């Protein structure tokens, strides 16, 4: 069988799931994006349509190819039906171990017998997720980066049972969707999440202490280190609720240097998660950052 005739199922239609679904469908795979929230699925379809239309305007994809890619993508709120015969499952649900295990357990009976089971977790244990799966050797971490259609890296995370065959097959999927992959032996926070969490946490401590404004902290990283966005901008994009979950896990497993900044805890308690709620470190209107809206130390 032509590998691109295989079906890929993505579970979770948030930012990451949306981007991953676009990556596979635009690379020739039959792709099903699954979410129990039909409104979230509708938003995901709109977001993917915009990526295609923007690509056409920029000359990165021709209209016929975009239409063919869109036709390869379907959505569903029925995980068992969507997973039927799939060769690859990528779950991108919330960073809670019990939820990830439940999603995989629900999909397992419908997947192809040798299907790869991938988790997009940025910090949780692939080994622990795999321990609940018959055939744990086919479970692997497949950590994409946001926005998926622009970011080239995928961290492939080996759990204690992950087989060489699973690594090779998953790497082939990455190659087929034009992503560069690195192999990471399971460790809390992997490589990038561990560094990013530490950087974002320190930036929030600096903001809390009044070292500099939010805008200037972000400018320092963009202009001084050529980062595409500052750590506070990135936290707003990722979601401070997600960042807090990751930091708490890293604090528990790796120690005191990952203790979450109190300002993050305060923001999450106030529902200021970032772009998705319209307010994080910055304010957003219609998805666009309001100039000079960053939190000031005097307001904390």
Summarize, please.
Pfam families: 3HCDH, 3HCDH_N. With about 300 residues, this protein is of the alpha/beta class.
Strand order of the largest sheet: 3-2-1-4-5-6-7-8
CATH topology of the largest domain: Rossmann fold
> Mean pLDDT, as a whole number?
93
Q: How does the major sheet shape up? A: 8 strands, mixed
Give the beta-strand count: 10
Choose one word for the global shape: globular
Structural class designation? alpha/beta
GO molecular function: 3-hydroxybutyryl-CoA dehydrogenase activity; NAD+ binding
Domain 3-hydroxyacyl-CoA dehydrogenase C-terminal: 191-284
Site (Important for catalytic activity): 143
Protein name: 3-hydroxybutyryl-CoA dehydrogenase
Structure, explained:
The chain has 300 residues and is of the alpha/beta class. The chain has two domains: 3-185, Rossmann fold (3-Layer(aba) Sandwich); 193-293, N-(1-d-carboxylethyl)-l-norvaline Dehydrogenase, domain 2. The chain has twelve helices and ten strands. It has helices at residues 15-26, 38-57, 63-72, 79-82, 97-107, 126-130, 164-176, 192-209, 214-225, 231-238, 240-254, 262-269, and strands spanning 7-11, 30-34, 73-76, 88-91, 116-119, 139-143, 153-158, 180-185, 284-285, 288-289. The strands form two sheets. Strands 3-2-1-4-5-6-7-8 form an eight-stranded mixed β-sheet, sandwiched between helices. It has a two-stranded antiparallel sheet with strand order 9-10. α1 (15-26) packs across α2 (38-57) and α8 (192-209) crosses α10 (231-238). It is globular and about 55 Å long. The N and C termini lie far apart (59 Å). Keywords: NAD, Oxidoreductase. Residues 7-186 form the 3-hydroxyacyl-CoA dehydrogenase NAD binding domain. This is 3-hydroxybutyryl-CoA dehydrogenase. InterPro entries: 3-OHacyl-CoA_DH, 3-OHacyl-CoA_DH_NAD-bd, 3HC_DH_C, 6-PGluconate_DH-like_C_sf, 6PGD_dom2, NAD(P)-bd_dom_sf. Its EC number is 1.1.1.157.
